[in-house]
Amino acid sequence: MKRLYTIGIDFGTSNSCVCQACYAHDETGALIPTPIKRPEPIVVDHRDTIPTAVFLGAADEGPVYGEVADEKSLYYPELTRTNFKMRLGMAGADGAEAYRLTVDFLRFLRSELAQHIPFDAPEDEAEFATCVGHPVQWSADQRDLTRRAAIEAGFPNVSIEDESSAAIYDHLCEDQLSLKPGQASRVLVIDMGGGTTDFAFVELASRPGVAPITTPVDPSRIVPPWEGAHQTYGGRDLDALMLRHIAEPWGYSPHSREWAFLLRETRRFKERFSVAITSGKESYRTRWMLEGTSREVKISRMEFEQIAEAYMQHLPRLIQGALSLAGISAEEVDTIILTGGHSRWYWVEDAVRSTFPSISVENGTLLRHSSPDQSVARGLAYRWMIQASGGQLRPRRRATHSIWIANPEPTAQIYVAPPINIGPVASVAAGTPEDPVLVMDRGQLLPFHTPAPAKLTIQKMDFDAERATLRLKLYSGSSDASRLELTDRVASFDRPFWESVAKKVCSRLPWSTRYDTDEFDVEVLCAVDENELFRGKVTITRFYRGRPAQQLVQMLQMEPPAA
Question: In terms of Cα–Cα distance, which of 252, 237, 238 is closest to 295?
Fold first, then answer.
């Protein structure tokens, strides 16, 4: 009986996890949903999770990866690379290096996996499939680079899936997520990793076979930074807090030669301290050998809560910001899934309950895997179980932020006639700080097009009789604090182009365009596709130069040249 070996890869910022499962086909060739071997992580260097680290190699040795590379960082920090996942998709040398490191690290994972999966088995006996997780907020470019890197690293039949969906797959397949028959549910997935904390709301339909709807949000854009300076929120940030508390009294700073060693020991101490406090102990102590001297390290629960007070209080603020961006109340969330290794902390559950009083472990609405750093990789390997059972894997997504339009020219006066059901008509006076006008509200299912073009009347825009130029800016966000510029586009319209089109279509068509006047009408149609989700792009589908030009473009299916 032919077997299917599935591979789930949680490619993390600080640590990664790889799970493998095995399924069988029935006599007809259809995949049997229940796996022969349920997903389990592969163990590398005695660990279920592998540090996402690459040591480039010294003069006397080649590159190494994972735990060994992490150890090498103590002696060769300049030759060790970590956190390169966060640079994947960047322009220039940083992005190119991040892609190369990703390929090399994934190739290392494949070599380790080859000890557990028979990649060399005959085709009639075995087939293989890989699914790589990605943060739900990632752009199309970042997702594509992740998939390409896995293919280049030698993984077979590579697909990708967002980590929030993978966490839901894991809890569905391991019977921890109970859904009431015939009732829609909204699940909030909070993924707390070493580098980031991600939020996504997932709407599960009441009818089987209907794809879920995912709304990713990034509340860090609207929530003030903790301690007034820190925008990031992950395990590494807590490492830095604890290390500063331990090492500064000893006279060490980030410029000290021993800092890398102290950071590694702090991470190990943090994990053991968390386990001890969760189990009911009031403190944890150990000893470090530092420069030939044994030093005691001890932190009590009360002391830790003083050290990390601002950090701990920031999580409820992020949760409130996530609800605000999604436009829903706490009562509209049915279940919360905590995933990622950093979600183990005892105070995380308290932070959730402070916002969601009805959510708890006791009533089965607050879920966290016994090994939350494995749940994404397990869910990715369970993907084929969901698919074979008739589940809809590809979620439909909602726009995370609104799209706004504004005129950047200080000497121009702009009049916007917004599309249907978008909002009031806005007029922007010349030389005054204009308020961007809403053209696409958040929460729209993607792909989305504005229901009708927004009409802009530009006065005193251009006195060139041969060419008129429109510069258009689009913004994404749900408030002034979160608004970011997405697009700065310039479109030029040539008089000969329009005249030639008019003559070709119909000599009797009314045509009275004059470029030497002070008024210039343009209509713009905005679109956001799933591949442009969150931090991606806004497509300006068409520029229309006045009503006659609009009619001509529609008749000929042509668009004016845009620069």
Answer: 252
